[in-house]
Amino acid sequence: MKINEGLKAGDLEGVVNKRFSIDQYKSKMGEDKNILVLSFSVDGQAPAKDLERFAEVGYKSVLDADATPGTLEDGAHKVFIEFARDSSVVKNIMAFLEDLKKLTNIEEFEYTYHKGINATTASTETLEGSIPTTPEAYEQRINEMKVIEAKNFFDRYDMMECKFEESTMSVKKTGAGHDLKFEIHKFGPTTDIMKEAKAFKIDLDSIAECTHLTKYFGPYDITKTNENKFIFTKGEQSALVSKIGW
153 or 29, which is more confident? Predict the structure, then answer.
């Protein structure tokens, strides 16, 4: 076990959550397709800084480690640990986790991937099945997840075909005579999406466009912003899009 900064076995017991996330947060060091981010929750600023130093000083494979200066809503601190996305990344993560188990007395860590909520026990086998280890594999995985996310959000009645090409979504409704094309800017909680809009358009043309989209997609709450973007709202979730062609 690699000990540094005065840490010894058991020093982080009870303060590091056994569940961490992979690829949920963006990298500070470069593009996400090239760099993978692990995110740990830690109770207390001092142990969060200890984990940051442990990762950054003790492992050549760690590109960067950073503890958040402030607490989250649950009172915890986040520690972000970045690895190069390459053929060795699973081996590097497992080596780090094995040492972290000794510091925390955690028998098994578990992880969620990207925006997922269901946790999986961290092992070489499960990580190899979850983590894209090349830029091309990462972009393919993200594109697949975007399709699923868009399908679940927009196709309420399972009557549409959604296709993605980078950030462009093409939608074709069964029985409709034309396709709609949008650029997808953001998915997320309605409160976050609404912060993107400074003001809304309420002229007749904008109202007509929103009415057309409501007839096409169903009973969503659809508004148009002054930036010529549309906000689709379904309960607590919303999407911010702009039209490309229809």
Answer: 29
Neighbours of 120 (CB within 10 A): 16
Residues 143 and 161 in one domain: yes
8-state DSSP, 172: E
Distance CA 245, CA 179 (A): 8
Token pair for 95: 């080596």
| Pair (38, 127) in one structural domain | yes
Domain residues for the domain of 234 are 137-245
The mean pLDDT of the chain is 89
Exposed/middle/buried for residue 3 (C-beta within 10 Å: 0-12, 13-18, 19+): middle
pLDDT tens for 51-82 read: 999 999 989 999 999 999 877 767 789 999 99
Position with higher pLDDT, 25 vs 171: 25
Spell 191-204 as b/e; 16+ CB within 10 A means b: eebeeeeeeebeee
Asked whether residue 57 falls in the same domain as residue 109, the answer is yes
Q: In what order do the strands lie in the sheet with 120-121?
A: 62-67, 77-84, 35-42, 19-22, 110-113, 120-121
